[in-house]
Structures are given as C-alpha cells and as structure tokens.
Design goal:
heterodimer, A: mainly beta, three-stranded parallel β-sheet, 10 strands, 0% helix, globular, B: mainly beta, 2 domains, ten-stranded parallel β-sheet, 3 helices, elongated
C-alpha cells in the first residue's frame, strides 16, 4: 500500500500498519500525519518505507518495527 | 396543473396506515420528517407516507440504530438524541434546526453511535449547536452550525470519539468547535468568525483529557484559529494539525497555553498568515513544529514562545 498526504489519527491500534502474513507486505508513506494512536507507524515483519516527512507524534509509541528511508527524487 | 405528490400518496397511505394501526409495532428502521408532516403521525411511526413534522417527533418512535430522514426543505426543530441513530438530509435541499434557546442538538446517548448529515443548525438565541454529553461515537458530516452564543459544537464526554467532516462552524460566541474532553478528529472543515477559537481543545474539568486532530481545514476570522489549553489540574489538552490554514484571525493563527493542566501541540505542512498578532504563539506548554509550516505576514511577529522542531519520520 502506498499512502501520501494521509492522516491516521485516534485509532485504537495503529495509524499505519504493515503486517506480513503468508505472502509479502510492503508500504510506502509520505507526507502523512499519524497521531493519537497506540502506535503511529507499525511494521510487523513486512517492508515499510518512509520519505521521512511524516508527522508522527503523540502516539503511545510513535513507531514499531523497521522503517527504512526512501529518498525523494 | 400541478399536484402535490404527497397528496397523491394520501389515499394509499391511509390504507397502509389502517393496516399499520391494526398490528403491533415492529422494529422501526426508518422514520421520516417533512414540511407537510405532522407529529400526530407518531401514531403511525412516522412512516414515509405519514411523516412527522419534527426530528423530535421522529426520535420518539425510531428504534435503536435506526435512521431519521428529512424528505424536503424545512426547519425540523431542536432535538435531544438519546438513542444510537442517524439523522440525515441528503444533498439538494435545506434541512434546518433553529434554536431559539438552549441547544440545537443535544446528544446524551451513552455507548451509542450517532450520525448527523446534511443539517443546517442555526441559532436565534440558542446556546450550543451540537452539545455532545455522552456517546460512543458521533459523526458530523456536511453540516453548517452558526450563530450560537456558546460554541458551534461542544464535546464534553470522556469516552466519546467525534468525527467532523466537510462542516462549517461560523459566527459562534465561543468556539467553532470546543473540545472540553473527549477525542475529536476533523477533516475538510472551516471555522470562521467565532469569538474565541475556530478549533479548540480547552479542558474545563480536573483530570480531563481533550484531544483534537485537524486535517485539511481552515480557520479564519476567529480570535485564535487553533487553540489548545490544559486549564484545570491534572488535565491534558493535545492538538495535532496538518495541512491547515490559520489566517486572518484577530490574534493568533495557533495559540497554545496551559494553566494547571498540560498542553502539547504539533503542527506541520500548514499556513499561519495574516493574523493580528502571531502566526504561532506558545504562551505555555509544548509546541512542536515539523519545520515546514509557512508562517508570515502576521502583524506582530511570526512566532513567540518556545517552539521545538519535530523531525519527520
């Protein structure tokens, strides 16, 4: 899933979640705001790339799991 | 020659009503209101062919989880919501509530989900447009709420989640949106010309937690465009803003303050300009900025108070 300029707020679990099941799971997120969630951005075994410009604060935990940097071009 | 479509259905409706009157009432999923309705039709459960005149009339017969539907342009009077219901007016006509005193809509429905769509809620002496006292969730979409002596929408319920979208909050005597406690998310809305804040999270009770997120919205002509204040002891006010504009407000585009409580605000990708004092004013509390906000053309200065940079992730 690719998400740009989105807001994930006030969710009981995650603002943005990538979760690997039996297949592959990947997400790219840019320009988003994730706030007031249990976890702002959560990668559970998949691939989560960020442009590094997301506003992520005031969550129980702002991030969980590996988040790799995706440079802008 | 034109004919009133409601008259056309009258004969058939009378027959239906006769049938309805004979049997016990079943679960009522939908109740209807119309400019030609009559609240005496509660006896017929405000069905499509015998609509009620007011939302309150329909509320008295609708079942839990049901829908109240406005059929045509009219004022439908103030209503107290005590059940989990939807009140909807579909696009294309005016469905109004005028409050001569008190509140336009009062929601006191603990653990219930309420949805309001397409309503014009106006005050001619009214105090609060939509007063959320208790609910599990409240969704407000495509409404106009104006001219109340208090706030357009007031949320004062600890456990509630309120979502507001595509809504105008205008010319109210306190805030456009006032979150005293509870959790509110706003998207695509405008707050204009309100006496205090356009969108505010200001605690009024000890221990209260007021959280407010605003996305893709504008606040102009208020005293403060966006306002957060943890006022009373052990209370917390938090506000998160992205892609908002706080412009042409009398004082500040964004103002954070705290008294005995705590305040935290974050803001990014936003514009704070043409305000009478500051673009961003941190009187007290924590204000974090992603550093990509446009803050200029404010009368006194761009910012005042401590603002820390919040790095992106």
């Amino acid at each position: 899933m690719n998400a740009t300029r989105v807001t994930g707020a006030s969710n009981s679990a995650d603002g943005f979640r990538v979760e690997l099941g039996s297949g592959t799971a990947s997400g790219v997120v840019a320009g988003g705001m994730f706030t007031q969630n249990a976890v702002g951005m959560n990668n559970m075994g998949g691939t989560l790339k960020s442009l590094g410009d997301n506003l992520v604060d005031l969550n129980g935990s702002n991030t969980s799991g590996a988040i790799s940097s995706l440079p802008g071009q | 020659m034109t004919t009133n479509p409601l008259r056309n259905v009258t004969a058939a409706a009378l027959a239906v009503a006769g049938i309805l009157a004979c049997g016990p009432a079943s679960a009522l999923q939908r109740a209807f209101v119309s400019s030609l309705g009559n609240d005496a039709n509660t006896a017929s459960s405000c069905v499509l062919t015998f609509p009620c005149r007011t939302f309150a009339g329909a509320m008295s017969v609708i079942d839990e989880g049901g829908e109240i539907i406005a059929l045509d342009a009219a004022g439908y009077a103030v209503v107290n919501i005590t059940k989990g219901v939807t009140i909807v007016a579909n696009p294309g006509f005016y469905a109004g509530i005028t409050a001569g005193g008190g509140n336009g809509i009062t929601i006191n429905a603990p653990t219930k989900n309420v949805l309001l769509k397409g309503l014009n809620i106006n005050a001619l002496g009214g105090v609060v447009g939509i007063n959320v006292i208790a609910a599990a969730s409240v969704t407000i979409d495509n409404c106009v709420i104006a001219n109340f002596s208090g706030s357009g929408v007031q949320v004062d319920a600890a456990a509630v989640k309120v979502r507001i979208s595509n809504t105008v909050l205008s010319s109210n005597g306190q805030d456009g949106l006032e979150v005293r406690q509870g959790r509110v998310d706003v998207v695509g809305s405008r707050a204009n010309g309100n006496t205090r804040g356009g969108f505010s999270a200001v605690t009024t009770g000890g221990g209260a937690v007021a959280t407010l997120t605003v996305t893709d919205s504008t606040a102009s002509g208020n005293n403060y465009g966006f306002y957060a204040k943890g006022d009373l002891a052990a209370s917390t006010a938090q506000i998160a803003l992205t892609r908002v504009a706080g412009t042409s407000n009398l004082a500040d585009g964004l103002r954070t303050d705290q008294n005995a409580g705590a305040t935290t605000a974050i803001v990014g990708n936003s514009v704070m300009t043409e305000n009478g004092a500051y673009g961003m004013n941190n009187v007290a509390g924590i204000l974090r900025s992603s550093g990509n906000n446009v803050v200029d053309f404010n009368t006194t200065a761009a910012t005042i108070g401590s603002i820390t940079v919040l790095g992106g992730i």
